[in-house]
């Protein structure tokens, strides 16, 4: 796993929140699980642009941070399901507000992101 060279100072609530949500798909994964999508294969179908490996890494990090709980069923082939912990449930209103803000400012943000992506060197 990637190790940061400079440690974050976790003395600020927003830094802590960003640290546990850091990852392109973490908030989406939490939303999926909250909607009842518990199996990794179903999450992969909901987020086709994410690789299975990335989703597995981010689910493992969410589990490590105590936001989700992984249940492995003793059968062949193995069946795995994820569920939100109470800590993960408490983060859902934050994710909802982030989604509302993004939707409210969609036009401005898409334009700004398109410009910044066009400026990247090839």
UniProtKB/TrEMBL annotation:
Keyword annotations of the record: DNA-binding, Transcription, Transcription regulation
HTH hxlR-type domain location: 12-110
One Gene Ontology term of the molecular function aspect: DNA binding
One Pfam entry name: HxlR
Gene3D superfamilies: Winged helix-like DNA-binding domain superfamily/Winged helix DNA-binding domain
Signal peptide (residue range): none
PROSITE patterns with a match to the protein in the record: HTH_HXLR
Protein's recorded name: Helix-turn-helix transcriptional regulator
Organism for this UniProt entry: Hymenobacter setariae
């Amino acid at each position: 796993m990637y190790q940061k060279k400079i440690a974050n100072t976790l003395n600020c609530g927003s830094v802590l929140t960003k640290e546990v949500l850091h990852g392109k798909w973490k908030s989406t994964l939490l939303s999926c699980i909250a909607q009842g999508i518990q199996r990794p294969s179903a999450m992969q179908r909901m987020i086709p642009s994410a690789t299975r490996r990335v989703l597995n890494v981010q689910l493992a990090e969410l589990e490590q941070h105590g936001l989700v709980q992984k249940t492995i069923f003793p059968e062949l082939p193995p069946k795995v399901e994820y569920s939100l912990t109470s800590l993960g449930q408490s983060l859902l209103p934050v994710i909802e507000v982030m989604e509302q803000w993004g939707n409210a400012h969609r036009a401005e943000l898409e334009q700004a992101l398109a410009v910044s992506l066009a400026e990247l060197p090839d």
